[in-house]
């Protein structure tokens, strides 16, 4: 256990050092170039402080922008998982359904969420528009993970339950779901990434005044680079935190897979 | 715990797998079945477990057709069949959970059987944390945890190393002597069959029938080096060799 803890401490230390080196190089590079188009980290911090305390040109705070984006992502992501998991399981358990609808399902998978923006602009507004686009982005990774995961169910594990007289429902809940869950969680991490990429594109395309994409677009029109970079950093940071949270959930749920062997 | 009577024939399309396989197992009897490879033993076990309906005839447990939902049937598989996402305790409880027994009863039954198979202290471990022999012990504990009418064992020790295998054979006899159950044990290893069984049935090659029913009336614990043991093993071996010769003869005709 202490070996594990040491390796965590080591990883955190190394990451802090590399981040510090990166910032120093950035600051030095900015000092050498000395142009408003290459702001140093110190200016980014200033822009961050202004956006956080005063807000943007319309007085909307950085917190409001971040929360607006995060909220849309969470709603769309939840919808994607809610539909993707059961549909993936259904098609995995009944390969006939999937085989019969492949020509519909598969092409849809290759239409990127961004390609849905024009339709979304026509049919939806506000939260629904963003949630719909995120849903498109989040649905397929989860759906595919569940679909493929079902094939990983060991016939022997099914037989263990079957020989004791288990019903179809019991096998689904106690054999299929535990087998597929690691795949689904992996799919959820991919879906979260896709959702977060989609939200920025969707907000850049217009709509409400809040949202990190909107914020960046506003400052792009004013040619103010530090504020744009603040938006980028926050997008990266929130995505990172969401991913780490899902990883923690995976570690906890699947301790039967990763726990140190005797 | 129950009397099992079998009288089945089975075919896959044109392929006749079993042709009038007929035998009875007495209550609490330890019956071993041996046969040449390709005698359809996996199919026979699926039929005995009530998971596959034979083309003709049926398996009856205490007079009624074998049904996993009605009867307590346990199965110890050849491959490790522990469910990796469950702890040792929950793996052993699977049969009782499927049958929706009260949790208090499950806890008591699981604790008791874990004691018998020597896994006390390992209740909270996951399968990947324990050895292959221990995993098979978990599967055996799972089979005995229910008040099984019938326990089927499909070469459960074949993947274990020789010393572990011998110890497990000894253990399964001890468990069976403490918790009497009706057992059908399938194996290719005649020494194992004669060591464990009250009776050994020899199956023929496809279409399989029973060609010998040999009572092993040796007192336990059995001495594998004794003259009687060797003689019984030789009798089984002769019957089996005859079947092997026939099945390879049949194959070379194709």
Over the alpha carbons, how many angstroms does the gyration radius of chain B reach? 18 Å
> Which word captures the global form of chain B?
globular
Strand count of chain B: 10
State the domain count of chain A: 2
Weakly predicted, low-confidence segments of chain A:
none
Largest sheet of chain B: 6 strands, mixed
Distance between the termini of chain B: 44 Å
Alpha carbon gyration radius of chain A: 23 Å
Q: What is the quaternary state of this protein?
A: heterodimer
Q: Tell me the CATH superfamily of the largest domain in chain B.
A: P-loop containing nucleotide triphosphate hydrolases
Instruction: Predict the CATH topology of the largest domain in chain B.
Output: Rossmann fold
| CATH architecture verdict of the largest domain in chain A | Orthogonal Bundle
Number of domains of chain B: 2
Strand fraction of chain B equals: 15-25%
Give the CATH architecture of the largest domain in chain B: 3-Layer(aba) Sandwich
Measured distance between first and last alpha carbons of chain A: 12 Å
Shape of chain A: globular
> Care to count the β-strands of chain A?
0
Share of β-strand residues of chain A: under 5%
- Structural class of the secondary structure composition of chain A? mainly alpha
Q: Helix and strand succession of chain A?
A: HHHHHHHHHHH
């Amino acid at each position: 256990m202490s070996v594990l803890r040491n390796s965590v401490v080591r990883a955190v230390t190394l990451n802090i050092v590399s981040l510090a080196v990166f910032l120093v190089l950035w600051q030095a590079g900015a000092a050498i170039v000395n142009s408003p188009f290459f702001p140093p980290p110190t200016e980014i911090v200033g822009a961050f402080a202004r956006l956080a305390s005063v807000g943007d040109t319309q007085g909307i705070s950085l917190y409001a922008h971040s929360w607006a984006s995060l909220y849309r992502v969470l709603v769309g992501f939840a919808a994607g998982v809610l539909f993707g998991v059961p549909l993936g399981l259904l098609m995995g358990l009944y390969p006939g359904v999937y085989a019969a609808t492949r020509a519909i399902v598969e092409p849809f998978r290759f239409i990127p969420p961004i390609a849905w923006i024009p339709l979304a602009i026509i049919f939806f507004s506000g939260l629904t528009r963003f949630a719909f686009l995120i849903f498109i982005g989040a649905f397929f990774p989860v759906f595919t993970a569940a679909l493929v995961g079902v094939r990983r169910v060991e016939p022997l594990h099914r037989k263990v339950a079957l020989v004791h007289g288990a019903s179809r429902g019991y096998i689904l809940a106690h054999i299929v779901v535990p087998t597929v869950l690691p795949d689904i969680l992996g799919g959820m991490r991919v879906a979260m990434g896709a959702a977060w990429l989609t939200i920025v594109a969707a907000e850049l395309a217009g709509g409400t005044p809040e949202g990190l994409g909107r914020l960046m677009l506003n400052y792009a029109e004013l040619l103010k680079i530090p504020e744009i970079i603040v938006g980028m950093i926050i997008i990266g940071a929130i995505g990172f935190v969401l991913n780490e949270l899902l990883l923690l959930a995976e570690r906890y749920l699947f301790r039967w897979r990763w726990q140190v062997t005797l | 715990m129950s009397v099992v009577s079998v009288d089945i024939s089975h075919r896959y399309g044109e392929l006749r797998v079993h042709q009038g396989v007929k035998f009875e197992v007495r209550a609490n009897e330890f019956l071993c079945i041996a046969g040449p490879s390709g005698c359809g033993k996996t199919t026979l076990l699926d039929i005995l477990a009530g998971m596959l309906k034979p083309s003709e005839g049926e398996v009856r447990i205490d007079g009624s057709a074998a049904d996993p939902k009605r009867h307590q049937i346990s199965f110890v598989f050849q491959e490790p069949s522990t469910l990796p996402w469950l702890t040792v305790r929950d793996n052993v409880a699977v049969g009782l959970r499927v049958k929706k027994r009260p949790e208090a009863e499950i806890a008591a039954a699981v604790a008791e059987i874990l004691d018998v198979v020597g896994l006390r202290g390992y209740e909270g471990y996951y399968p990947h944390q324990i050895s292959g022999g221990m995993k098979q012990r978990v599967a055996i504990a799972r089979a005995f945890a229910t008040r099984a009418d019938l326990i089927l064992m499909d070469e459960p020790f074949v993947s274990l190393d020789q010393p572990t295998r011998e110890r497990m054979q000894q253990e399964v006899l001890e468990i069976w002597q403490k918790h009497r159950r009706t057992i059908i044990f399938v194996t290719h290893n005649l020494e194992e069959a004669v060591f464990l069984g009250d009776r050994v049935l020899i199956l023929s090659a496809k279409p399989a029938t029973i060609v010998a029913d040999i009572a092993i009336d040796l007192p336990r614990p059995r001495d594998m080096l004794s003259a009687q043991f060797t003689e019984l093993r030789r009798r089984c071996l002769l019957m089996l060799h005859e079947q092997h010769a026939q099945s390879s003869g049949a194959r070379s005709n194709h």
